[in-house]
Amino acid sequence: MTRPHWELPQTLGALRRSAFSEERLAARSVKDELRENLLGKLARGEPLFPGIVGYEDTVIPQIVNAILSRHNFILLGLRGQAKTRILRMLTTLLDEWMPYIAGSEIRDNPYRPISRYGRNLVAELGDDTPIAWLTPEQRYVEKLATPDVTIADMIGDIDPIKAARSGHDISDELTIHYGLLPRANRGIFAINELPDLAGKIQVGLFNIMQEGDVQIKGYPVRLPLDVLLVFTANPEDYTARGKIITPLKDRIGSEIRTHYPLTLEQGMAITAQEAWTERASPLKLAIPNYIRQAVETVAFLAREDKRVDRRSGVSQRLPITVLENVTSNAEQRALKSGDAVAVPRVLDLYAALPSITGKLELEYEGELKGGEAVARELIRQAVGKVFHQYYDGTDLTPIVQWFELGGSIRLGETAPAADLLRQLRSIHGLLEQIGPLGVGPKDPAPALVSAAEFILEGLYAHRRIGRSEERGFVAEERKRPAAAAEAGELPRGRRQRFN
User: Fold this and answer.
1) Are residues 244 and 270 in the same domain?
2) Same domain, 283 and 224
């Protein structure tokens, strides 16, 4: 249980008589504090980074090693790999409360103040020096690196207004306006996208990291800061915006590579955790597992597609936002059609194109084809891949023959599910095949329609049947072998597995 700050010592004298003794606080750095608390969590078997999925055997053990080694470290990886989230969770390894000299801009240790303000106050008031307290969240400072960041922003600058108001000489240390790094003293200082930081600013960082001194407007100031420095960046060879200078890179203790989910199950777990699908709604929302699989497969396929820039990456935010859009479109459709249950369908994947196209950086070939066309092909491939997992070896010939005999069906977007279900019942053998998708005849009509449409879309993805804007699903137009190959049709041996 968190102890209220008003129950904690409020003066230096009371602090000396408390559990926050000089022996404990004076020599214990923030890196020692993180190490000690991490060792305790490991001994108790507590989770270290709850909510971080897929890094249990790769990234997290390396972060643990870096903290136990008291290293500054950098997380190197593409966008959407939870780098910033991990850094913000480091605060869970800090103490519940940390005392500092009240009014100190750089959060001076009451027993070892490093600022002129802190030293003067302790010399003047002694044991009556007022003490304030910081929570773990207040000890985390984060800065997004941009080319316009200055030394003044990061380290500090002379403040002539402060000098005029206080009557001090402008060269006096008391006239300094401290930057973000000194203000992160006795805490964690995180810099996102480190290569974007100008080289001269990076020089200022490694100087204060290693030697603890810095010059502000030509005046040397000794600042032996106690801080854990952590960074994030895209791999250097993936970005043309900048690079990490060699002396700074040399002073970063550990370089830890992050990655996208290694398996579909890991990706689905992350998406299910992060996507806003548990929402207040007048409808019951039910998202089938095969739709979740198709959404995640879109991201996996995009990461492997030669038309998508792999150096840029495909963020995990893509399946998260797609699933949210899919759910919203199903919700909108159910309200318009009067259905009591909103069940996403394949058509909702196509309705979610705006949440896909903006997250794909295309190569030249993809640019020629267009973002929307590439996204549509990725959806079709994803549905085909998931369909193959459920129906490999299943005899679906009666459904295909129904279309070959002249049948066609157009599944309207806003038509009530009950009306669509009556149309789908006319396709011989279709509703008998929904069982593998986890849907039964007693399920609501929207669930039956979603499953049946998924089967039809899967057959279309494998070019067993066709689809047109006017008539919907129809018989596949027979192509000559060369034309079929150009269209990316599956080899005939693969198609026969569904016969």
Assistant:
1) no
2) no
Q: What is the pLDDT of residue 1?
A: 44
> How many whole angstroms separate alpha carbon 426 and alpha carbon 456?
13
Q: Are residues 231 and 303 in the same domain?
A: no
User: Per-residue pLDDT tens for 192-242?
Assistant: 999 888 888 888 787 777 776 666 666 667 778 899 999 999 885 445 566
- CA atoms of 352 and 361, how far apart (whole Å): 17
- Could you say which DSSP state residue 307 is in? T
Mutual angle of helices 317-337 and 264-274, in 10-degree steps = 60
pLDDT in tens, 410-424: 998 889 999 999 999
Tokens (6 digits) for 148: 């316009």
> Which SS3 state, helix, strand or coil, does residue 218 take?
coil
Question: What amino acid is encoded at 108 in this protein?
Answer: D
pLDDT at 478 (0 to 100): 64
> Would you call 341 helix, strand, or coil by DSSP?
strand
Q: What residue has token string 């519940």? A: 96
Listing DSSP states for 49-97 in one string gives STT--S-TTTHHHHHHHHHHTT--EEEE--TTSSHHHHHHGGGGGS-S-
Band (387; pLDDT cuts 50, 70, 90): very high
Does residue 99 belong to any structural domain of this protein?
A: no
Residue 294, pLDDT > 70, answer yes
Q: Is the dihedral of CA 405, 411, 416, 417 positive or negative?
A: positive
Tokens, residue 454: 């998924």
CB neighbourhood size of 256 (10 A): 22
Domain that holds residue 232: 71-91+136-257
